[in-house]
Amino acid sequence: MGNIDWDKLNKTFSVTMNFENVLKQEMNNNPSRRGYDDTYSYKGIGYVPRVSNIIKICTDQTNLIDWAARIGKNKMEMYRDNALDVGSTVHKAIEEYLNGHEDYTYIEALANEVFNDPKLVEQCITAFNNFIHWEKELASLGYQIYSIANEKEVICPLYGGTIDWIAEIIDPDGISKKYIIDFKTSKGISSSYLLQTAAYRLAWNWLDYYYNGGNNYINGIGIIRLDKYSKLISDYLFTDNYELLDRLEYDVRSMINWFYCNSDAINILRTMQARRDFYE
Length: 280
Hints:
Layout: H1 6-12, H2 16-29, E1 41-42, E2 46-47, H3 51-58, H4 62-71, H5 73-98, H6 106-114, H7 118-140, E3 144-155, E4 160-170, E5 176-184, H8 191-212, E6 220-226, E7 234-239, H9 242-262, H10 274-279
Helix pairs in contact: 3-8, 3-9, 4-5, 5-6, 5-7, 6-7, 8-9
């Protein structure tokens, strides 16, 4: 299971029971839980925020603000919504493919249901085919890929999210490792993507250790960028480097601590002794 410090990991999220009590109290005092996405409910007690929203709040978005100012609000919203729809459509097609839908032309029918614009349909087809290209490319290099789960929710006491894909990858030397993988149709791989997948891995491994003895430990994270404009282009970044993942998880913990203690959200950690443990 690598060099992971299980005692440190357990301490990181040693807030379960206290958090549940505070969460129950918060739900009684403020049922709407302002600032929290209602998609992710922790053990039926109350809602926790999306980790992607935490990272968005805690990272610099100046470049996006400047871009929006240059092109205007209406055009910015159109670009944003189209990009989101293309990404969602490609995700859906990959999900169907991983679940056994082997008809590669399915993406075209799916995209035509969503878009009237042939250019956006073509973007979906290109991005999806680039995933197939990535899969075939790794197979040609001697890698074996086994799907474990896709569109898998992970919900810990502090945040939630949906993992695009969990896969076991066996390298040409026969070494098997498990990865949490995110699909992106953006123009590049940003640091926020690494933080997001690291947050998923942190939550997954803590929950697995806490409830399952660490039997489903995830070794690393991966980002697969599926270009939607150019064929046969799929950038990918995979890592199971302990030092790098430890650094990313430290940054995730720092962002979450700031989010709960300083942002305009429900201040749960202020009431908990666990704040000190979580911050270390």
